[in-house]
Amino acid sequence: MSSIFTKIISREIKSEIVYEQDNLIVIKDINPKAKTHLLIIPKKEIPTINDLTINDKDLIADMFLVAKKIAKDLNIDAWYRLHFNVWALWWQEVMHIHLHLLSDI
Ligand code: 5GP
């Protein structure tokens, strides 16, 4: 079943997209937990971090490199947090991996 993020990527559902490249998209979180709260989402639908394989290593590297670029572009690179929720059946709301980028600067 398609995740809500797959529908955002395909523009079936509207979202505030702040950045896009061939393999990922960056959107504003609909329910921000910090002044800046972005989600870096691969276009490939991978349910959880537990489902990653070695074939995904370039994709994961790109997610962190894009997080770094966006933090710099937004001038929040002096202080920000990056995290994945990995509790597949509990904390993780959307079963399509996404890197949270949060900052209160
Ligand atoms: P998780 O707990 O799965 O790591 O976090 C999912 C995040 O996605 C939450 O912070 C939640 O606010 C955000 N989210 C859920 N549905 C939508 C949506 O339809 N649009 C956007 N922009 N964010 C969403």
Jot down its keywords.
binds guanosine-5'-monophosphate; 2 helices; alpha+beta; HIT family, subunit A; 105 residues
Class by alpha and beta content: alpha+beta
Unreliable runs, pLDDT <50, ≥5 residues?
none
Q: Main beta sheet, described?
A: 5 strands, antiparallel
How many domains? The number is 1
- How many helical stretches? 2
Radius of gyration: 13 Å
What this model shows, in words?
The chain is an alpha+beta fold. The protein has one domain (4-103): 2-Layer Sandwich (HIT family, subunit A). Helix content is 22%, strand content 24%. The protein has two helices and five strands. It has helices at residues 4-9, 57-73, and strands at residues 17-21, 24-28, 36-42, 81-83, 99-103. The chain has a five-stranded antiparallel sheet, with helices on one face. The chain starts with a helix and ends with a strand. The model has no long low-confidence stretch (mean pLDDT 95). The structure holds guanosine-5'-monophosphate (5GP).
